Every structure is written in C-alpha cells, then in structure tokens.
Amino acid sequence: MNRALSQRTPHSLLDDPRAYAKLETNYRKNKEQDHTPKIDDAAKRFDYEACKDEYWNPEAYSLLHGTPLWDEASPTERVLLNQLYWVAYYSQIISAEIATILLNQTCASGLYSIEDFRIVCDGLDLESAQERAHIHAFKTIGEKVEERLFGERMFTYPMRTMYTETMIFHNSNRVKEFWRNIQLRAATMLTSGNAFLGCQYFAIRGLRTLNGKMIQQALAQPYLRASDKAASPIPAQVSYFHFMDESYHFNTSRLLSHDVLHCLPPPGPFERFVANRAIDGCQRDHFHFSVTVKGIFWYDPSLFHPVYRILRSKVFGMDHADAREMIRRCYTEESDGLHEAYRIHATAAESYRAYVEPLKYPNARNRDMAVMAGSTMERYLSDTRRAFARFEGHA
Ligand SMILES: [Fe+2]
Ligand SMILES: [Fe+2]
C-alpha cells in the first residue's frame, strides 16, 4: 500500500510477502488448470444408459455399504447402490457449495476493506464460478438418475438459497430452523463488514472441507486409475475434475485462515465470540455420522423414509414388510458399515483438532472438538432405535 499517504489501517496483505506469494501461486495455478470446461462438457455428455452397468465410485463408497442391504444385494443392486451413493453424496455437496458461493463474496468484501486484498478477492471470484459449474454437473446428473430410476426425487432437491439447513438430512425442527436462518443472515452481514470475521470464515470453510477432501480423494481414484480415462463413466470423471478444483479451494482456506490471519489486527472479544460460535456450529452440523452415506454427517433417522421409498421402488421391488425389516436391520443393529461410518467421523474430528491447533482464538470446547466427540455408536443406536419405533408406527 502507499504508506506516504494516510490509510485507514496500518495493515496490508503485502506486509507478509510469503503469504502473498503463496496466494498468488495458488490463484494462478487454479486459473491455469481450471476444470470448468471439462465439468460442463461432462455434464452435457452424461447419458445414464451409457454407464448404468458400471460402478462410479470405489466399491466401499456405496449406499449402505457394510450393512445387511449391501451384504444381501445382487450384483445389479450393488451397482445401483454404488451409483446412488454418488447422487446422495453430491446432493449434499451442492448444498454446501450454495453456501460457499455467498460466503466467498461476503467475506471477500470484508477482506477488501484492508489494503492490497485484490488477489484474494479475484481468487474467490474464480472459486465461486467453479462452484456454479460443480453444482450444475452434480444437479444435472443426480436429477437424471433419479428421474430414470424412480420418477421422483430421493436425495436431490429443487434449487434453493443457503438459508435452509446446510445438512439436507438433519435433526431439526421449525424453531431450530428459524433460529439458524437468523444466525446465518447475521453471519453474512458480519463477515461482509469485518476483515477478521471474513478471514476467519475460511477456518470454517477449511474445517468443513477437511473430511470432504478425504472422501473426494477416494472418489477421484477410479478415473485416476483407469487405463482409458475417456471411457470411464462420466460421474467418475466429474468426481476427479471436482477434486482437482477443490484442492485449490482447500489451499485458499488454509492460507487465509492460517497465514493471512496473522497480518490482520488481533480479534476483540466480540470477534472471538462470533468466531467460536461459528466453529461450534460446524461441530453441531458434523455431529452425526451416517451409515447410509458414510463420510457425510447426515442424521440417519431422517433417511428412513427416502430409503424405504427406494426399497419399495421397482428397482429394488421389496414389499412393505421386507423394506421395513431391512431398515430395522440396517439402522438399529451394529454392522461393519456402522463401524466404518463411526471411524470416518472420529478421523474427521481428529483432523479438525489438528486444523484449529495453530489458531489462537478457539476456546477449549472448539479445540477439543468436544461436541463431535459426544457422537458415539451407543448414541447412534439409541437414536435410531427410538426413531425406528416412531417410523414403524407411521410406515
Ligand atoms: Fe466444488
Ligand atoms: Fe470448493
């Protein structure tokens, strides 16, 4: 910045040339390798008939993998469960990315109040445009699959704002949803006018994508390992292209929340309070683990109805009693799938602890990820058993 003339703050992004250089490299490489045209093209070329007999993900990334449904499924049904994992998983990613688009912009405007932040804002503009391409591809493919298999929505949903629940299948009620809506609106206003909070959002974005990074890395493998990449199923191609774009987004989150934060004025008590509330909210959003879609923090009792409809659909063809019994066995009993979902959740909490460890402002509850640590297998089973008794009464 021009130090000869008066400035509003003594801070500039150029005060930390190393952080600036890292941001510049990350932005330049993302621009050079931008996968938007490939993702758009893949979405356009998607034809379910052409890849309906293939696995789109590694086998372990299948709906209800490691549960009785998977164990007893025919080879054809297993392929379907694998494809439905893709649809369900990326339906959740759409929701997260709708929020990311808005928060990238509000936080960029908070950060732009400090001198020399143009590079960050330009990078975030590119990321938001990439998210729109990602959403378009996930939505196009997910909707075509559901239309073809079921003729109705199971995991997908019509386009919406970020002010609905970010977790599509959650444990909420109208009062909680209303309160959350107010909090989100307040958060967007606060981040747009405060550089620290704008920057701190990227700690949340980084946390939220840590687990995603692990899963999406696995989902990128079939394409990476394919000898004829162009012949691999379109959804597998999209998984890979998406993972490549997201690796830059993750770097941005880490750079802003860990490196750039140091060149901003230290937070006051209000900023520390808001920042801790945000991490707390992330822990709550990531409290549950799901055997339906492992690696996603959905509340499984809210999936009983969609899974029941899938089992009753012509593709699985179960009658009422069989579908109900399958849901009981998959969700209320211990299984390899449950152990695996719990293990992934525990690994996520561990990586979140490591991520916030270098930050100065998180309180003990957020440092220890104490909320997430309360999510145990015993609790899962008592929740699902209670919910199944209610479900049985309605089904
Ligand atoms: Fe994305
Ligand atoms: Fe992203």
Summarize the structure.
With about 400 residues, the chain is an all-alpha fold. The chain has helices spanning about 15-35, 35-45, 50, 70, 75-110, 120-150, 175-190, 195-220, 220-225, 235-260, 270-285, 305-310, 320-330, 335-355, 365, 370-375, 375-395.
How far apart the termini lie comes to 65 Å
The low-confidence parts are: none
Question: How much helix is in the residues?
Answer: 55-70%
Q: What form results from the Cα inertia axes?
A: globular
Whole-number tally of structural domains:
1
Can you list the ligands bound to this structure? fe (ii) ion
Number of strands: 0
Q: DSSP helix count? A: 17
Largest sheet geometry: none
Provide the β-strand percentage band: under 5%
Structural class: mainly alpha
- The arrangement of helices and strands along the chain is HHHHHHHHHHHHHHHHH
Radius of gyration: 22 Å
Average pLDDT metric: 94
Written overview of the protein:
The protein is an all-alpha fold. The protein has one domain. It has helices at residues 17-33, 36-45, 48-51, 68-71, 75-111, 118-149, 174-192, 195-219, 221-225, 234-259, 269-285, 304-312, 320-332, 336-356, 364-367, 370-373, 377-394. The longest helix is centred in the N-terminal third of the chain and has 37 residues, at 75-111. 43% of the residues are buried. One fe (ii) ion binds next to α6 and α10.
